[in-house]
Design a protein that fits this description.
- The structure is a single chain.
- The protein is of the alpha/beta class and 444 residues long.
- Helix content is 38%, strand content 17%.
- The chain has 14 helices and 17 strands.
- The chain has helices at residues 37-40, 49-61, 73-83, 99-116, 137-142, 146-149, 168-171, 178-196, 223-233, 286-294, 309-324, 327-346, 382-392, 422-443; strands at residues 16-20, 23-26, 31-34, 90-96, 124-128, 160-163, 201-207, 209-210, 217-218, 237-241, 265-268, 280-285, 352-358, 361-366, 395-396, 398-400, 411-414.
- The chain has a 7-stranded mixed beta sheet, with helices on both faces.
- Strand 8 and strand 9 (217-218) form a beta hairpin.
- Helix 3 (73-83) packs across helix 11 and helix 13 (382-392) packs across helix 14.
- It starts with 15 loop residues before the first strand and ends with a helix.
- The structure holds pyridoxal-5'-phosphate (PLP).
- Residues 39, 98-100, 103, 132-134, 207, 211-212, 241, 243-244, 269, 280 line the site of pyridoxal-5'-phosphate.
- InterPro entries: Aminotrans_3, PyrdxlP-dep_Trfase, PyrdxlP-dep_Trfase_major, PyrdxlP-dep_Trfase_small.
- This is Aspartate aminotransferase family protein.
- GO terms for molecular function: pyridoxal phosphate binding; transaminase activity.
- Keywords: Aminotransferase, Pyridoxal phosphate, Transferase.
């Protein structure tokens, strides 16, 4: 047995030894399509020569300099690239090493902002059930996934409160229109502000498109505009976690561009560096930075590896390649193809309740019964079996569910690299379809 702590302590996973394009190769020589880019990470696929060259060049020049004393060129240029044109009023960027760290930074910056502008009573956050913001304790406190929270409940922060997500497949009542359902969710949010005391709320945190826990669940039209209006009315911040859904994954650079709102703080990771280096960060609205500047003039938070030169050089190269190769257009085109292929394959399938997503970020939700939306017994581990069957057929996908909050069906996410070709999209759906058929045949 391995001495490394793996996700499972009972079995060792295969060794990945090489990656090229959308393919991963293991030590046994098997070729696996990285059909979910890991967890929606590998946006450029593997082995992109420009990113590798940029990383090597940065290492030749400077591997590390502590940010208590220095800045570095790659971090400065990455910040310019991300917020130099102030998208949605976001003017500043902070870089760390993961999505969880990004969420921690967002939480702490938001609290510090209100301290600096003389509103110390603001101590509460409102987030959503069935959300995921990371595994560190602050981010886990923000998250609303009951299963992940349960073991740590006694040591999680009590400053986080949860309202319903926008999840029409299961939560919109049959007698409700989309607009009525959205209005109900906005009323629920307003009621939560009132319950806590509106002047005690720091902000509302949400994934723009919910990733792992709900499976590519985008909000209905008008939802985020309604949320933003409530936040604005009460002077609270809108904090959008785009760790999974952002950086082009949904077909626009930022997923919020499709929602008619922009955040006060946005968390980014995964597609920022495409897995070539560990990097995450936050993008911050000018007014938040002004508040801090006029106050202590510092962000009271830091990490040894913040704005790491090599990580920033990798992310800068990833973002440059995305622009040079016009990959957002490919995400849109291949995303439309993926949706079409999934709909053809599963649109009338008795065990697929919903097919949903945006861009190259799609999920199918498995149900025991399509009409009643009855979930499969979690003990059947449907999502895990689909993952294994797909892997046997040379496809890596990202499954979840079954045990989430006890009411949600299993689902699997497909999030191919942005470089995927039409033929590769077809192969992904073909292999995925075969895997699903094999699992469901066993269950009959
Ligand atoms: N936020 C969201 C929406 C995520 O999907 C994830 C990871 O899956 C995180 C935060 C945590 O990111 P990391 O695993 O890089 O810490």
């Amino acid at each position: 047995m391995s001495h490394l702590v793996h996700r499972s302590l009972r079995s060792d996973p295969p060794l990945a030894v090489r990656g090229q394009g959308i393919y991963l190769y293991d030590a046994a020589g098997r070729e696996i399509i990285d059909g979910s880019g890991g967890a929606a990470v590998a946006c450029l696929g593997h082995g992109h020569p420009k990113v590798i060259t940029a990383i090597k060049a940065q290492l030749d020049q400077l591997a590390y300099a502590h940010t208590a004393l220095f800045s570095c060129e790659s971090a400065e240029r990455l910040a310019d690239t991300m917020v130099g044109h102030a998208p949605g009023g976001l003017t500043h960027a902070y870089f760390c090493s993961s999505g969880s760290e990004g969420n921690e930074a967002a939480i702490k910056m938001a609290r510090q902002y209100f301290l600096e502008i003389g509103e110390p009573r603001r101590v509460n956050f409102i987030a959503r059930r069935q959300s995921y913001h990371g595994n560190t304790l602050g981010a886990l406190s923000a998250g609303g996934n009951a299963m992940r929270r349960a073991p740590y409940q006694p040591i999680l922060s009590r400053a986080f409160h949860h309202v319903s997500p926008c999840y029409p497949y299961r939560d919109r009542r049959d007698d409700e229109s989309d607009a009525q359902y959205v209005a109900r969710l906005i009323e629920e949010l307003e009621a939560e502000f009132q319950r806590l005391g509106p002047d005690t709320v720091i902000g509302f945190m949400a994934e723009t498109v919910v990733g792992a826990t709900l499976g590519c669940a985008a909000a209905l039209p008008g939802y985020f505009e309604g949320v933003k209006a409530v936040c604005d009315r009460h002077g609270a911040l809108l904090i959008l976690d785009e760790v999974m859904s952002g950086m082009g994954r949904c077909g626009t650079l930022h997923a919020w561009e499709q929602e008619g709102v922009s955040p006060d703080i946005q968390i980014v990771a995964k597609g920022l560096g495409g897995g070539y280096q560990p990097i995450g960060g936050i993008l911050v609205h000018g007014r938040v930075i002004e508040g801090l500047s006029r106050g202590t003039g510092a962000f009271m938070h830091g990490h040894t590896y913040q704005a790491h030169p090599v990580a920033c050089a990798a992310a800068l190269a990833v973002q440059q390649v995305m622009a040079e190769e016009n990959l957002l257009a490919n995400v849109q085109a291949m995303g439309a193809r993926l949706e079409q292929r999934l709909t053809e394959r599963f649109g009338n399938h008795r065990h697929i309740g919903d097919i949903r997503g945006r861009g190259l970020f799609w999920a199918v939700e498995f149900v025991a019964d399509r009409a009643s939306k009855q979930v499969f017994d979690p003990a059947l581990k449907v999502n895990e079996r689909v993952k294994q069957e797909a892997f046997r057929r040379g496809l890596a996908c990202y499954p979840m569910g079954g045990t989430i909050d006890g009411r949600q069906g299993d689902h699997a996410i497909l999030a191919p690299p942005y470089i995927a070709t039409p033929e590769q999209i077809d192969t992904i759906v073909e292999r995925f379809g075969e895997a699903v058929d094999a699992v469901l045949a066993e269950l009959r």
